[in-house]
Design a protein that fits this description.
mainly beta
Length: 126
């Protein structure tokens, strides 16, 4: 069982930056791949970024590539999402997710993750 708690969301102007954190409970954090997803009002939840259990593999959605960076600190049981050059269309509730995958595989689909946080709101003003 893994419990996830996101933090770091807020209101920022377009072009600004935020860093989201996701703190995980449990001693098996280092064995889980972690993902970030987001859901804007009236839209389905969509993939943002993911990182393998050892940080060796990362994947990004095309619409955040080059602007967002996912990283993890296994000693702190935390995964981060550094978001730069934010755009109004990045406004959404951001969720972190965790699950175990074989080897360095990282899931990019919502259904591939069993454990979810409660989300943190990110609002980007124009």
């Amino acid at each position: 069982q893994v419990q996830l708690v996101e933090s770091g969301g807020g209101l920022v102007q377009a072009g600004g930056s935020l860093r989201l954190s996701c703190a995980a409970s449990g001693r098996t954090f280092s064995t889980y791949a972690m993902g970030w997803f987001r859901q804007a009002p009236g839209k389905e939840r969509e993939f943002v970024a993911a990182i393998s259990y050892n940080g060796g593999t990362t994947h990004y959605a095309d619409y955040v590539k080059g602007r967002f960076t996912i990283s993890r600190g296994n000693a702190k049981n935390t995964v981060y999402l550094q978001m730069n050059s934010l755009k109004p269309e990045d406004t959404a509730v951001y969720y972190c997710a965790a699950d175990y995958f074989f080897n360095d595989y990282v899931g990019q689909k919502e259904f591939e993750y069993e454990y979810w946080g409660q989300g943190t709101q990110v609002t980007v003003s124009s």
